[in-house]
């Protein structure tokens, strides 16, 4: 599943390298590519790539940032757009999240499962910054309003939805059973759909 791009403040060269890295991860199934391999894939010399990214850590940090921005933009487009059925939008957002993780397992792991410096707190701060959680919260709030529910805890429920999404995705990715992958992801989707329905119907009383 390709992601639309905002890519503000990213130079063409840096973005080219980031997109080439994503393509490499999709084809390889992991993030263990060498910088020389990335330079060739991006159509750059190693020297040019080094100007943009002096080391692998700098590249991966930018790759995460761009990917988080793209996902945040997608969340906003789904949850904050006017019109439409709020519950359907919330379900759609959850399904697109699952589709992204299944199509991009190496990128997903890099974004959400590799704590590096700062541990899990860093992942939460970067992967679900305030503006991203704002969009999901708005999706939950609209859904609850439509059901005639109070919305006092919409933000808490939005965070619960995202953390549960992440948990079931990791379980699905960690299950080494390619023959039953479709059935496994269908169960994951059903779990997310049920949780979304419960959240939409939840009362804050």
From TrEMBL:
It comes from the Bacteria. Residues 34-53 bind DNA. InterPro entries: Homeodomain-like_sf, HTH-type_TetR-like_transc_reg, HTH_TetR, MT1864/Rv1816-like_C, Tet_transcr_reg_TetR-rel_C_sf. Residues 11-71 form the HTH tetR-type domain. Keywords: DNA-binding, Transcription, Transcription regulation. Pfam families: TetR_C_33, TetR_N. This is TetR/AcrR family transcriptional regulator.
């Amino acid at each position: 599943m390709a992601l639309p791009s905002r890519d503000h403040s990213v130079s063409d060269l840096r973005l080219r390298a980031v997109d080439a890295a994503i393509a490499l991860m999709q084809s390889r199934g992991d993030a263990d590519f060498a910088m020389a391999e990335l330079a060739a894939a991006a159509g750059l010399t190693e020297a040019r790539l080094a100007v943009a990214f002096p080391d692998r850590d700098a590249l991966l940090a930018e790759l995460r940032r761009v990917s988080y921005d793209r996902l945040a933009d997608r969340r906003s487009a789904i949850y904050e757009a006017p019109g439409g059925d709020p519950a359907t939008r919330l379900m759609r957002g959850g399904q697109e999240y699952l589709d992204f993780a299944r199509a991009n397992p190496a990128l997903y792991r890099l974004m959400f499962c590799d704590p590096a410096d700062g541990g899990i707190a860093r992942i939460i701060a970067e992967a679900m910054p305030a503006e991203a959680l704002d969009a999901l919260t708005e999706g939950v709030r609209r859904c609850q309003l439509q059901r005639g529910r109070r919305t006092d805890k919409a933000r808490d429920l939005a965070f619960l939805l995202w953390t549960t999404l992440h948990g079931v995705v990791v379980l699905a990715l960690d299950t080494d059973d390619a023959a039953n992958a479709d059935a496994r992801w269908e169960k994951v989707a059903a779990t997310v759909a049920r949780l979304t329905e419960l959240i939409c119907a939840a009362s804050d009383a």
